[in-house]
Amino acid sequence: MQREHLVWLPQIAKAILLLLCASIVAALDTAVVFRLPSVFASVNVPLIAALAATLFMGSTNGVVLAFVLGVLCDVMLANALGARSIPLVVFAAVVGLMEARFSREHPLTWAVLGALGSVIHDILYFCVLAFSGYLPLIWADLIRIAGFGALINGVLSVVCLMPLYLWWRSGDHRPATGLG
Amino acid sequence: MGAGRSKFGLIQVAVLLLVLSVLMLVGFLRGFVAAEPAGQVVRTVLSPVQKLFGGIYSAVDSRLEVYRDHERVLAENEALRQEVQSLRASLVKNEELAAENARLRELLGYSEEAPYELAAARVIARDRQRWRDCIVIDKGTADGVEKNAAVLGPHGIVGRVTSASLRSSAVMLISDPQSALSGRVQESRALVSVEGSSRPDGLLKFECLESGDKVKVGDLVITSGLGGVFPPGLVVGRVHSVEKDFYGISDTGLLTPASNLMSVESVLVVINGGNTQ
Question: Do A31 and B21 touch (CB under 8 A)?
């Protein structure tokens, strides 16, 4: 009977770890990124974290982390609940479904993932806010912000995530259950 | 086969979370889902972490700034020293004027207006992409901050508290597209409605509520006190451009906010008296 309870312990530990990671990333995104010079203000920390979790820890974990991250960001900034989690979950799910089709050793893959993910995220987030009545639908704003974000997040993905992934793979840290 | 099953599991989880997100959003917008109790707990728990990250960043940035701009800092130091000298001189003059003002008030029988109490707060978080202009400050209900309290910057109003938790509060800036307030043109006394916009230059939109040429470029706009949130007489900004509305009857245009809303770091919150709602 006791052993049956113990089976859940790793799952609970994983859930707590996931929540802790999400809290740190959300705090970092809301408390630090806006202080950066305007060139780096488009850095999307939750997006990069969701991408890393999807590719390193398995796609299901990535999607769950993306959801928790989105909700935490919305709650911390008193935003409309779900506005941020919708684009993050869609992005993590798309990466998770397509991950078998791309080579992770190529820098271009990381650049495209970061840039495309940023564009998908920004378009969805903008549309969610606009159709919720929070924003006027001004396409010029979307193109400006999404274009700049794609550039910054694409570069960040190659510079930070790719080396991290290569180190991760060389140490064989991958979880047995994950696809990554 | 295993990979296919995993993908099926992934789709199930993703669809479930997506549906949950959409339901939360719809519920929130229609008022069925209240984010407040959970939001207050999360903000109370995570505000120390945000303060810590913000503090680390500021400390690192200020160190780097000193090394980067040593020459500029020296020149600025000299300029500030001169400014202090001149401010000291004007302070003495102001003290004399204040004393004279008090004497004259006493003579005329005026009583001092009850000033509202202010609490100084620091910005600990902000929405990254600035589509929505919302900041989080490090003062909450424990410091007397209430929902709808006015938030001021060094030169004028900044926004209002939309949600207050124990140790932090969310503030909607006046540049947020959802923000609207009642103002008055200081010179002509005409009432104007001031709204936020998502313009990259941070300018606000205004519409004069009275017909005729009541607004000129450069006019100062202050709060009217009619909205019930902001006390009257606080500076909102200066008129940047004026044009006639669609019917050619009243003035509309853009307003430069008095406070630099793009880089606001410290604010003052009106914690009693100012909020008349």
Answer: no
Interchain CB distance below 8 Å, B24 and A81: yes
State the residue range of the domain holding B121. 116-272
Query: Chain B partners of A41 at a C-beta cutoff of 8 Å?
Result: 128-130
Inter-chain residue contact A86 with B21, CB threshold 8 Å? yes
ipTM of the complex: 0.82
Residue B2, in any domain of the structure: no
Domain covering A2-33+43-170 assigned CATH 1.25.40 in the classification: no
Asked if residue B223 and residue B241 are part of one domain, the reply reads yes
Contacts of A97 in chain B (CB under 8 A): 7, 10-11
Classify B43 as helix, strand or coil: helix
B52: closest chain A residue by CA: A31
Q: Which token pair is A118?
A: 């940023």
Same domain for B145 and B215? yes
**Do B178 and B262 reside in the same domain of the chain?**
yes
Instruction: Give the number of domains in chain B.
Output: 2
State whether B142 and B72 are in the same domain: no
> What phi and psi values does residue B54 have, to the nearest 5 degrees?
-65, -40
Contact between chains at B53 and A27 (C-beta distance less than 8 A) = yes
Q: Quick one: angle between helices B36-68 and A59-76, nearest 10?
A: 90
- Sequential pLDDT tens for chain B (277 residues): 455 666 778 888 999 999 999 998 888 887 776 667 777 788 888 888 888 888 888 888 877 877 777 777 788 888 888 888 888 888 887 887 887 777 776 666 554 554 678 888 988 888 766 567 888 898 888 888 988 899 988 888 999 998 888 888 889 999 888 888 999 998 888 899 998 886 777 889 998 888 777 788 888 999 988 877 888 888 899 999 988 877 777 788 899 998 888 878 888 898 875 544 4
CA distance A62 to B14: 10
B180 with B77, same domain? no
DSSP letter string, A6-61: HTTHHHHHHHHHHHHHHHHHHHHHHHTGGGS-GGGTT--HHHHHHHHHHHHS-HHH
